[in-house]
Each structure stands twice: as structure tokens, then as C-alpha cells.
């Protein structure tokens, strides 16, 4: 049983070495849009509305292109 736990722990560490940078990348990609909207929100309501619409359109195109490949 101890050997199984040891092997599982080693495999878990290897997986986290791969997964952790991917998780950070996803979080940082989300935060770019979040920070952009936060900054533009201080400029005005019309500008904020424009940025949110454009971000949604660009994200829609990006996801569409991702799924066609």
C-alpha cells in the first residue's frame, strides 16, 4: 500500500508540473479582460458598454475559430 501511495504522489507531482502553468495561463487570460473593463469603467458608461460588446464579439469569433480547427 505504501508503494502505491508513493507512486501516486510522484504521478500527482508530475501532473501538477504540467497543469499549474496551464491553470495560471487561463486565470491570467481571464484577468486581462477583467482589468480592461475595470479601467474603461472609470472613463464612462458609453465607453464601458462599447468595450464589453467588442470583447464579447471578439471572444465569440475566437471560440468559433478554435472549434473549427
Strand content: under 5%
DSSP helix fraction = over 70%
Envelope shape: elongated
Which structural class do you get from the secondary structure elements? mainly alpha
What value does the average pLDDT take? 90
Task: Write down the secondary-structure element order.
Answer: HH
Q: Major sheet, described briefly?
A: none
Radius of gyration: 20 Å
Note poorly predicted spans.
none
Calculate the terminal CA-CA distance, rounded to whole Å. 44 Å
Instruction: Count all strands and give the number.
Output: 0
Number of domains: 1
* Count of DSSP-assigned helices: 2
Describe the structure.
- With about 70 residues, the chain is mainly α.
- It has one domain.
- Helix content is about 95%, strand content about 0%.
- The protein is elongated, with a radius of gyration of 20 Å.
- The mean pLDDT is about 90.
- InterPro entries: MATE_fam.
Question: What would the keywords be for this entry?
Answer:
mainly alpha, membrane
What is the strand and helix layout of this fold?
Blueprint: H1 2-41, H2 45-68
Quick synopsis:
With 69 residues, the chain is mainly α. The protein is 93% helix and 0% strand.
Amino acid at each position: 500500500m505504501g508503494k502505491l501511495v508513493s507512486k501516486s504522489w510522484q504521478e500527482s507531482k508530475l501532473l501538477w508540473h504540467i497543469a499549474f502553468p496551464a491553470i495560471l495561463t487561463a486565470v491570467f487570460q481571464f484577468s486581462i479582460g477583467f482589468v480592461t473593463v475595470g479601467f474603461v469603467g472609470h472613463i464612462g458608461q458609453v465607453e464601458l458598454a462599447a468595450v464589453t460588446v467588442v470583447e464579447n464579439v471578439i471572444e465569440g469569433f475566437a471560440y468559433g475559430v478554435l472549434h473549427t480547427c
